[in-house]
Design goal:
Layout: E1 31-39, E2 49-53, E3 59-65, E4 71-77, E5 80-87, E6 94-101, E7 106-108, E8 111-113, E9 122-126, E10 156-160, H1 171-183, E11 204-205, E12 211-215, H2 221-231, H3 243-248, E13 263-272, E14 275-287, E15 298-305, H4 316-327, E16 335-341, E17 345-353, H5 357-365, H6 375-388, E18 395-402, H7 413-423, E19 429-434, H8 442-451, E20 456-458, H9 462-471, H10 473-477, E21 479-490, E22 497-500, E23 521-524, E24 528-536, H11 539-545, E25 568-575, E26 583-589, H12 601-617, H13 627-635, H14 645-658
Parallel strand pairs: 1-7, 1-8, 9-10, 15-16, 15-18, 18-19, 19-20
Antiparallel strand pairs: 1-4, 2-3, 2-5, 5-6, 11-22, 12-21, 13-14, 14-24, 16-17, 21-23, 21-25, 22-24, 25-26
Helix pairs in contact: 4-5, 4-9, 6-7, 7-8, 12-13, 13-14
Length: about 675
């Protein structure tokens, strides 16, 4: 049997995450399978899943998705025989068994998927307004219909206005919609996705601002959002690119904490990829790992948006798939309640122990979308249910699944945030999972998770749901430290200027660091947090950046402690999950003179991801770095990559770059 990574279960994915499956490193095998996936009309299928399965048809943890042309490559295989399963939303899965692969050769395997008979309606969807037509195909959360998760979705969508038809219900419908596709070239609807405005951090002079203070951020939504845009043939909005969330999407090889601390702190300094005249500081915080069997019991309330905007396989259908994955990981000590909201809110399932999985899964399967969105009413009810079933020694959390479109009752961002801030006093934490595109309210959901002492992730596929809710369940569900703040003090003798990469909406006033009434971020079990700073060490260069006038009544900062060779001190404050008084830990960091080629895989890979983000944002600090350089650096810093996420990152960048989606406009 092949030597495979222990990755999350692979099943039916939607049409995103074009390379988010675990890929073996090239050196682990010499065999390759290549092929193409089409439908019965010989149209290529984008985002179909090709997974290696065992003799019982169960996923083994290795697979890929088809690219923009329906092609796929499974590489790094050991020689022998394998079974392949090809799946796509709205299609009948196909399995090929006993495929022989041989060293240093590519075995060709093609799939033709038939449409599932459950699809019996045809709808037309006009793609959102795109300033320049992409070379790839635009996909929507209203794509091929499906009965995933046991839902009763009986619709399929024909894409027009710059995108091919994906599926049909009858020959007559094909012909009619084909003609309509030819005629319809106007009346495009604008994109209604909402992202907060982010102003990129500038360089700060250490003599004027020696302290940098921020709240940690373990949200990872930005990376999967960006991946979704790129895989659909579109360049993401600059506002969707949050560097810290891209960097923190990936795990790093940080040491486990010692001496009873909930997390460890590490630091490293080397050259900045995009400007080798500058230094780059890499700070890593690693939360304590807790084995799944040692996690405390959970009191979970699934709060599900079932409004009309959540209709579709990439929204409510994928929500059902996501919750199924999590339910199957829980045991009889855990309890689940199910609250839904649309025009009104309601309790679909009272708090139920997870030894009654069939009852819980049936309630999830029966969800259907329709109506307006009374989000605040649902939030109030979810907190009420969570408080009534509160576990003093357990994990009490609401998991909100939505596209963020609240439009009935309390719906403004300010009012919703105030509501969440009040509710978090109960000791119930709030995690937010975002779904879909076209009406996606990213900024609102990010704020709700932030103020609810939780985390925020974007789910674009079942594989992403596996990552967030199964593989990283401890980090998602169990908080080990709350109100975690970082404050870095730079030595003005060694460091002349610095720039924090990302965290623009997580900055704190310096005085907030010691103020225990100020809210900050949370760290989950096994979760890591990474922060990068670009550093200038040359006085002459800092002068060119600009400064305020010289001070008249006091001297500027400029003399460090005599004889100190420290570059900076990292201080971290945190509280216990149920505590109100913070504790302090710190680490002094020196420049060890490490050249870029000798720096750690952690350092180089995080820098490659940051470079990718800066290129997507068209940052003025990006220098002459290119996507080819991003790929080269990332390839040489894969590290352990047991889940294949780093290798998948390379495939995402390469695929988008090959299609010209990343060229500057």
């Amino acid at each position: 049997m092949n030597r495979l990574f222990h990755t999350a279960t692979l099943g039916l994915l939607l049409f995103t995450s074009a390379a988010s499956f675990a890929l073996l490193k090239p050196e682990t095998g010499t065999c390759t399978i290549q092929g193409k996936v089409t439908d019965e009309n010989k149209e290529e299928i984008i985002g179909a899943v090709i997974a290696i399965v065992d003799d019982k048809g169960q996923p083994t943890g290795k697979g890929v998705q088809t690219d923009y042309e329906g092609n796929f490559t499974l590489s790094g295989l050991d020689s022998g025989k394998v079974n392949l399963k090809c799946s796509y939303v709205g299609s009948i899965s196909q399995v090929m068994t006993g495929i022989r692969v041989t060293p240093f050769k590519s075995t060709m395997v093609n799939f033709v998927l038939k449409q599932s008979p459950v699809l019996n309606e045809v709808a037309v969807y006009r793609s959102p307004l795109i300033t320049s037509k992409p070379s790839g195909t635009y996909q929507s959360d209203k794509g091929r219909g499906s009965n995933i998760g046991g839902g009763r979705l009986n619709s399929t969508v024909i894409f027009i206005d710059g995108a091919r038809m994906n599926s049909t219900a009858s020959t007559g419908d094909i012909e009619e919609k084909t003609e309509e596709r030819k005629r319809v070239k106007t009346e495009e609807e604008p994109v209604t996705d909402d992202y907060g405005i982010v102003h990129e951090n500038e360089f700060e002079k250490v003599t004027q601002k020696p302290l940098s203070t921020l709240s940690i951020d373990v949200d990872v939504a930005s990376y999967s959002l960006i991946r979704n845009y790129l895989n659909q043939g579109m360049r993401p909005p600059k506002e969707a690119v949050r560097l810290e969330e891209m960097i923190n999407y990936f795990s790093y090889d940080y040491p486990q904490p010692k001496d009873g601390n909930p997390f460890s702190i590490t630091g490293e300094i080397s050259a900045a990829l995009w400007n080798t005249k500058h230094k780059l500081l890499h700070v890593g915080i690693q939360g304590k790992d807790i084995a799944k069997e040692n996690l405390p019991p959970s009191n979970l309330v699934f709060l599900i948006d079932v409004s009309g905007s959540m209709h579709g396989p990439a929204k409510l259908g994928l929500v059902q798939q996501s919750l199924r994955l999590l339910v199957n990981e829980l045991n009889e000590r855990d309890k689940i309640a199910l609250v839904v909201y649309a025009g009104a809110s309601g309790l679909v399932l009272p708090s139920t122990p997870c030894n009654k999985k069939e009852e819980i899964l049936k309630a999830i399967d029966n969800l259907q979308a329709g109506g307006g969105t009374a989000g605040a009413a649902g939030i109030n009810l979810a907190y009420k249910v969570a408080q009534e079933n509160f576990l003093q020694q357990g994990n009490n959390r609401i998991i909100l699944c939505t596209d963020g479109d609240f439009n009935i009752g309390v719906s403004s961002e300010t009012d919703l945030v105030s509501l969440i801030e009040d509710k978090r006093k109960s000791g119930v934490f709030l995690s937010v999972l975002g779904y879909g595109m076209g009406n996606f309210k990213d900024h609102k959901m990010e704020q709700l998770a932030d103020k609810g002492n939780g985390n925020y992730a974007y789910i674009d596929s079942e594989n992403e749901a596996n990552k967030v809710l199964v593989k990283e369940m401890g980090g998602t569900l169990l908080t080990i430290a709350k109100d975690v703040k970082i404050q870095i003090e730079f030595n003005p003798v060694k460091v002349k200027g610095y720039r924090l990469l990302g965290y623009e909406n997580r900055l704190l006033a310096d005085r907030d660091f010691n103020d225990d009434t100020k809210d900050a971020g949370e760290i989950g079990a096994g979760a890591g947090v990474t922060a990068l700073y670009e550093i200038i060490t040359d006085d002459a260069e800092m002068k060119s950046i600009g400064s305020v006038d010289s001070l008249k009544f006091q001297k500027p900062i400029g003399v460090a402690t005599t004889g100190s060779d420290e570059w900076l001190t990292v201080k971290v404050r945190f509280k216990a999950p149920d505590g109100n008084v913070s504790k302090l830990t710190q680490l002094d960091i020196k420049d060890q003179g490490i050249t870029l080629d000798k720096s750690s895989d952690n350092f180089r890979f995080s820098a490659a991801v940051a470079s990718f983000g800066m290129l997507l944002k068209d940052s003025k600090f990006k220098g002459d770095f290119s996507m080819e350089k991003v790929i080269a650096i990332a390839k040489n810093s894969l590290g352990k990559d047991n889940e294949g996420y780093r290798a998948a990152f390379i495939q995402v960048v390469k695929s988008a770059n090959d299609k010209g989606l990343l060229s500057q406009k």
